[in-house]
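Record minuted for completeness.

…
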Amino acid sequence: MAGRILIVDDEENMLRALSDVLRGQGWEVEVARSGEEALRHMEKTEMDIVFTDLKMPGMDGIELLERIKEMSPDTEVVVFTAYGSIESAVEAMKKGAWDYIVKPFEPEKVLLTAKKIFEHQALVRENLYLKEELGREYRFENIVGRSEKMQRIYQVIRKVAPTNANVLIYGESGTGKELIAHAIHYNSPRRDRRFVKVSCAALSQNLIETELFGHEKGSFTGAYTRRKGRFEVADGGTLFLDEVGEIPPEVQVKLLRVLQEHEFERVGGTETIKVDVRIISATNKDLWEEVRQGRFREDLFYRLNVVPIFVPPLRERKEDIPLLAKEFLKKYSLEMNKKIKKISKKAMELLMDYDWPGNVRELENTIERAVVFAKGEVITPDVLNLDQSPISGDGGRRTGTFNSSKSLYEREKSLISEVLEEANWNLARAARILQISRTTLYSKINKYGLRRPD
């Protein structure tokens, strides 16, 4: 839809010159010769931008601005003013005008201002769209599962999301703990603030302290600037502590203080910083056993474990496998532009019989890999590769023994090359199929001197 602009001025030459320039950009342009006429236009058609003279007979630009902002808060208003009326222009800015332009001016000045406003409005709309899409993606209704155990989890999410209660999510790796954390956040009053994740298992004791609480310049070797921690970044929102059981005891003390007092100091700092953050944690450990063994503070455990959620492994909710598999098939068929309609009966039986040690994440990787190598409209058993044996060039599993003349180096290089080709050199997809990290894949591409075909 073309942008809509209203020009308000009592000078005919001004209206004609500006409307010609702006219409030349493909925008819809209306003109009004008074504030009263401008309001009549606004009542019939919502405008994106209004350019108005500040001094006009009858209703002046300031009053028109106020009326427009009452009628349509998202409409941006730019005022024209003579050099001697700068104070009035500044008053207009305080009342919500986007900018002011001093007369006399070239029409191109108005053109550039309009372009800048439309770019800003497009960015605002895009951000709102992304927020809405993110909210839809993480609605608890979108956590796939009809089993009784998953239905109980949905009930807990409904009850806990509107509150500020801390939540501790238990479950094996790959069960979808982070998805549940997102669902809680995006169904809470904090949905418009940040959701910040910290992978506690990936950080050493020193790193996790600075990651959570930040540091001051010069607090340790290499601290060349002040850095905000995750608690500050998440202020007003939600902090997700993944694998919280890996936090070392020394840092647990500081974390407990934040939970109790909502305040902390950066590493190397003396300023006390207050924050309002909701904590959602996740662990694949028996955290109470960690408390019994003295590896996790009991008082911290109780602070985190206000509302526990236990996510079952996929092997304990196998009735959800067909639904999950179909969702992943739909997702990756669309992403790879493939017209794969279904999973064969035999292939589905194999999915149901498998124990899924990697849980939902492993099922998703399996379906994605199957979509990559599928040649027809149906997923068949030969492309599932549930035993994780190396994949042949035609997408099926290799059978029999390897050619003994090939070294391990050559076999790995050949396998990686084949998967990269099938994935059209999408590194994220290839890494998931190979079940290695993107960093490891990138390292092996360099190691074997693999290059994307021109």
